[in-house]
TrEMBL record:
<comment type="subunit">
    <text>Binds MYD88 (via TIR domain).</text>
</comment>
<dbReference type="InterPro" id="IPR000483">
    <property type="entry name" value="Cys-rich_flank_reg_C"/>
</dbReference>
<dbReference type="InterPro" id="IPR003591">
    <property type="entry name" value="Leu-rich_rpt_typical-subtyp"/>
</dbReference>
<dbReference type="InterPro" id="IPR001611">
    <property type="entry name" value="Leu-rich_rpt"/>
</dbReference>
<dbReference type="Pfam" id="PF13855">
    <property type="entry name" value="LRR_8"/>
</dbReference>
<dbReference type="InterPro" id="IPR035897">
    <property type="entry name" value="Toll_tir_struct_dom_sf"/>
</dbReference>
<feature type="disulfide bond">
    <location>
        <begin position="402"/>
        <end position="424"/>
    </location>
</feature>
<feature type="disulfide bond">
    <location>
        <begin position="2"/>
        <end position="8"/>
    </location>
</feature>
<keyword id="KW-0812">Transmembrane</keyword>
<dbReference type="GO" id="GO:0006954">
    <property type="term" value="P:inflammatory response"/>
</dbReference>
<feature type="transmembrane region" description="Helical">
    <location>
        <begin position="559"/>
        <end position="580"/>
    </location>
</feature>
<keyword id="KW-0675">Receptor</keyword>
<dbReference type="GO" id="GO:0042497">
    <property type="term" value="F:triacyl lipopeptide binding"/>
</dbReference>
<dbReference type="GO" id="GO:0043235">
    <property type="term" value="C:receptor complex"/>
</dbReference>
<keyword id="KW-0391">Immunity</keyword>
<dbReference type="Pfam" id="PF01582">
    <property type="entry name" value="TIR"/>
</dbReference>
<keyword id="KW-0433">Leucine-rich repeat</keyword>
């Protein structure tokens, strides 16, 4: 149950005793909400470095006297909500470092005859008492000199010995649950010089006049008194006002969740005779006044309010303040009427001419105001007003022109249902809040504005910076902002804080580039980086903007496509050049021709062979072929039938198909070799097809006639089989002499007939 920092959580585990094996490494031990009944001497003996021990909500009824003896470093001990019937000073005798002690919610009726806390010199907060706690005796708090907080559940406290709390020299905050009003004045008299803030709950103030200050002299320490869930009547509240005025140090009064039974008919004469009040701040929150609509105008209280500086009456059904009374708040600087029933008609009476002459801050939020123009006009009567909160009123509309206080610096118009912003907004503002109004744009000229709050609107872009040159803080949280550019960001020259969190950011390359390279982002953006999340593209949805890095293809798609196209074009161009240089086109053509020839039978049927020989020759050698060789062979006896391309090719047919068909329809292929033949493109095709079709069949269908001397090296290397044949087989060579020519013709005719 222990983590790396030795914080051990054994709460709610159904334990009946403190588990054995505790070591000196443990610093925090949580045993709350178990069924432990008894703490024995050895249970915590080894936990010498324990700083916090939580034992609340168990069933502890007994503790051995030396159970905490080894816990000299303990700072927090919580024994609340157990079954302890008494408290022993021996339990706490060795807890010299203890700062926080919680003992409330047990079953003890008193603290004993002496002080259980005499050895706790470093105690800072003490919680004690329970519904059975009934007696506080003198000496119960001896040994305690300074407390930050003292909490006493004295709901059934029936006996308080005078002077019991005087031993504590200083208490910053004392909270006491006290239903017995008879001992309230006795406790107050004891703490006048020690407590700074007294908070009393569930009290029903007494009717009898018991002075709070008896035989006490200034200076008093008590500055604030809070009543929580208290009950007042017209009579008791009048008496309380008189009695509290005796405490000259008292500056602040607070009432929370209290009930006032009456109609406001207070003893104003007695209150006036008791002298001037020193209270400067009154805060009333959620006070229920039965039949509040019958509550009178507090006539006669004017003399008691002229020194008041701060007044808050919230959630208390206030619907009006009489003009006569309002004019006597001559020193009031701060007035808070939020969450009440103020309407525009009654506001004319509440803020009449001459009322609230010193008022600087006014809060009218969460009321029932409907007209912004009237509200502005009434508040313009407050000459010194500079801070106005009229948020959460349903104005619904905003005029083009409004009359405001001349010195207004702060205006809160959030959640007022205004559909747009107009020149009704005063140009003197330094702070403007128009959050939660479904605004789609903002373009006002506000030269002095320093802070602008546009949270929860429908803005798609940042507002323009030029009309607000002094803007320091801007909030556009939870809008429809997709991104913002470097130019927009840098246009706010004095910007120190920008809250653009919780928007659906489109993580484009431009936006991400700006975010990653702007040095001030982390210092200026509020909530960075956790609250800035990408909504698109889909691949990075939900990722923090600061962690997203898009690829080159995603960021520069058109550039990448252009580069790829250029590269493809260059590669094609390079291939064309290489193909041209190395006759790739020629090879492709011949491959296609060979593939077609492969699909045909290797030897045409005898009935389709109609030539003795197909003659392949260069056009430059046509004179010899047509005038010499053709005449000699075709006029022989019997005559030979030769296939010549000029004469026998089928018009309109692809020339390669003509060559293939002519070779296949001929018994022999006769090649007339010369230098011109080697250079002829079509002779190359005819010769190469002979490679594929004839030489691969290992027959002698090809006859080579060398018309002129030619070196085998002059034949292109791709005609490797032709070069091999010329090197290994006999070929006919055209002689120069006539006698030798006759032998040539004889041998050629024999070759053709073979």
């Amino acid at each position: 149950s222990c983590n790396a920092r030795q914080l051990c959580n054994c709460s709610s585990m159904g334990l009946d005793f403190i588990p054995p094996g505790l070591t000196d490494k443990i610093t925090v031990l949580n045993l709350a909400h178990n069924r432990i009944k008894h703490i024995q001497s050895q249970d915590l003996q080894q936990a010498v470095n324990l700083k916090a021990l939580l034992l609340q909500s168990n069933k502890i009824s007994s503790i051995d006297e030396d159970s905490f003896q080894s816990l000299a470093k303990l700072e927090l001990l919580d024994l609340s909500n157990n079954s302890l019937a008494h408290l022993s000073p021996l339990w706490f005798g060795h807890l010299s470092s203890l700062q926080h002690l919680h003992l409330q919610g047990n079953s003890y009726r008193d603290l004993g005859q002496g002080s259980p806390f005499s050895s706790l010199r470093n105690l800072s907060s003490l919680h004690l008492g329970n519904p059975q706690f009934s007696v506080i005796r003198q000496g119960n708090f001896d040994g305690i000199e300074l407390l930050h907080k003292l909490w006493i559940d004295g709901s059934n406290l029936g006996q308080y010995e005078q002077g019991s709390l005087k031993s504590i020299k200083e208490i910053n905050h004392m909270i006491i649950n006290l239903r017995n009003s008879n001992i309230f004045s006795e406790i107050v008299r004891d703490i006048l010089h020690s407590v700074t803030w007294l908070e009393v709950t569930e009290i029903k103030l007494p009717i009898e006049n018991k002075r709070l200050v008896q035989n006490s002299t200034d200076p008093f320490r008590l500055q604030k008194v809070t009543f929580k869930e208290a009950f007042f009547t017209d009579q008791t509240i009048s008496l309380a006002i008189v009695l509290l005025k005796e405490i000259t140090s008292l500056k602040e009064l607070e009432a929370i969740n209290c009930v006032l039974e009456g109609k406001g008919i207070w003893n104003t004469e007695e209150i006036a005779r008791s002298g001037q009040s020193y209270v400067e701040t009154i805060m009333i929150n959620k006070v229920m006044i039965q039949n509040f609509h019958l509550f009178v105008d507090l006539n006669g209280m004017e003399s008691q309010i002229n020194k008041l500086k701060r007044l808050t009456i919230a959630s208390s059904n206030v619907f009006m303040v009489p003009c006569k009374l309002a004019r006597h708040f001559s020193s009031l600087l701060y007035l808070d009427f939020h969450d009440n029933l103020l309407v525009n008609k009654r506001l004319d009476e509440t803020i009449c001419k001459g009322s609230w002459p010193s008022l600087q801050t006014l809060n009218l939020s969460q009321n029932s105001l409907k007209s912004l123009k009237q509200t502005a006009m009434y508040t313009s009567r407050l000459a010194k007003l500079n801070n106005l909160d009229i948020s959460q009123n349903n104005f619904g509309d905003i005029p083009d022109v409004c009359e405001w206080p001349e010195n207004l610096k702060y205006l809160n118009l959030s959640s007022t249902q205004i559909p747009k912003v107009t020149t009704c907004i005063p140009p003197t503002l330094e702070v403007l809040d128009v959050s939660a109004n479904n605004l789609k744009e903002f373009g006002l000229q506000l030269p002095f504005l320093k802070e602008l709050y546009l949270t929860r609107n429908q803005l798609k872009t940042l507002p323009g910076a030029a009309p607000m040159p002094n803007l320091v803080a801007l909030s556009v949280r939870r809008n429809k902002l997709n991104s913002f550019s470097r130019e927009e960001f840098e246009s706010f020259r004095r910007m120190e804080l920008l809250d653009a969190s919780d928007n659906n950011f489109m993580c484009s390359c431009e936006f991400l580039s700006f975010i990653h390279h702007e040095a001030r982002i982390a210092q200026v953006l509020v909530g960075w980086p956790d609250k800035y999340v990408c909504d698109s593209p889909l691949a990075v949805r939900g990722a923090q903007v600061g962690t997203v890095h898009l690829s080159l293809m995603e960021c520069h798609r058109s550039l990448v496509v252009s580069v790829i196209c250029v590269l493809v074009f260059l590669i094609i161009l390079l291939l064309v050049a290489i193909g041209y240089k190395y006759h790739m086109v020629w090879y492709l053509r011949m491959t296609w021709a060979w593939l077609q020839a492969k699909r045909k039978p290797k030897r045409a049927p005898p009935k389709d062979v109609c030539y003795d020989a197909f003659v392949s020759y260069s056009e430059n050698d046509s004179d010899w072929v047509e005038n010499t060789m053709v005449r000699e062979l075709e006029q022989a006896c019997p005559p030979f039938r030769l296939c010549l391309h000029k004469r026998d090719f089928v018009p309109g047919k692809w020339i390669v198909d003509n060559i293939i068909d002519s070779i296949e329809k001929s018994h022999k292929t006769l090649f007339v070799l010369s230098e011109h033949f080697v250079q002829s493109e079509w002779c190359k095709y005819e010769l190469d097809f002979s490679h594929f079709r004839l030489f691969d069949e290992n027959n002698d269908a090809a006859i080579l006639v060398l018309l002129e001397p030619i070196q085998s090296k002059a034949i292109p290397k791709r005609f490797c089989k032709l070069r091999k044949i010329m090197n290994t087989k006999t070929y006919l060579e055209w002689p120069a002499g006539e006698e030798q020519q006759q032998v040539f013709w004889f041998n050629l005719k024999i070759a053709l007939r073979s």
